[in-house]
Amino acid sequence: MCTLALRAALSAALSAALSAALSAALSAAVAGCASAPGAGGRAALADLQAPRWRERAPDVFRVRVETTQGAFVVEARRAWAPRGADRFYQLARAGFFDDSRFFRVRSGFVVQFGIPGDPAVATAWRAAAIPDDPVREHNTRGTIAYAMTGPDTRTTQLFVNLADNTRLDAQGFAPLGVVVDGMDVVERLYAGYGEASGGGMRGGQQDSLFARGNAYLDRAYPRLDRLLHARVAATR
Fold first, then answer.
1. Closest CA to 48 of 116, 124, 112
2. Beta strands of the chain (E only): which ranges?
3. Residue among 71, 66, 24 nearest 183 (CA)
4. Which domain does 27 fall in, by range?
5. Cβ atoms of residues 118 and 210 within 8 Å
6. Is residue 130 part of a domain?
7. Total domains, the chain
8. Residue 132 belongs to a domain
9. Is residue 58 within 8 Å of residue 78, measured between CB atoms?
10. pTM above 0.90, yes or no
11. Do residues 169 and 140 touch, judged by C-beta distance below 8 A?
12. 56 pLDDT exceeds 60?
């Protein structure tokens, strides 16, 4: 009798464990599907007329960025830079930044990203500028803002300030958010290439990044850290 009872108990425990594991796996799968890029995959990102690019961002939202050095979290505030926050929200929700590279890392200055690894997508967005936002916050350590070449030239490239770069305020660089977790990760991103692996928008060295994408960067600058994926993690 004891043997039969033990077998029954073990069977019930195994059944419950299997059910729990299956439930967890299904939940993870659903969550993954919910956060993945929409219909059409990466190619759909080149359709600049899609409704997704007109969505208004929440007043406050967080974007979790997974990298080859770990993860960091940006909290964006629409009150700081409404147009910039809207664009960042749209791009993150669409998976625009996924599988790209941190192509400009200057120790003690900035980390820059935002050129897609797919040349077709990168080229489509290269001139897709948004109007400027007034500078309402300072470019202090951990804040994030768009790169640009002059008035009304912000597209998809962003940078995180690695120091208090408040001199950028007068040049029109309007912070839209700040890193609230994982700043140590941002500071670990590989900085050995400096400006050589793409540089800033004003530097005139980005043509190969747009024309040849990840294939070019991975061959010429193999130590660059990767942006694995970025997703909106919370809103309010």
1. 124
2. 60-67, 70-77, 100-101, 104-106, 110-113, 143-146, 158-161, 177-181, 226-235
3. 71
4. 1-33
5. no
6. yes
7. 2
8. yes
9. yes
10. no
11. no
12. yes
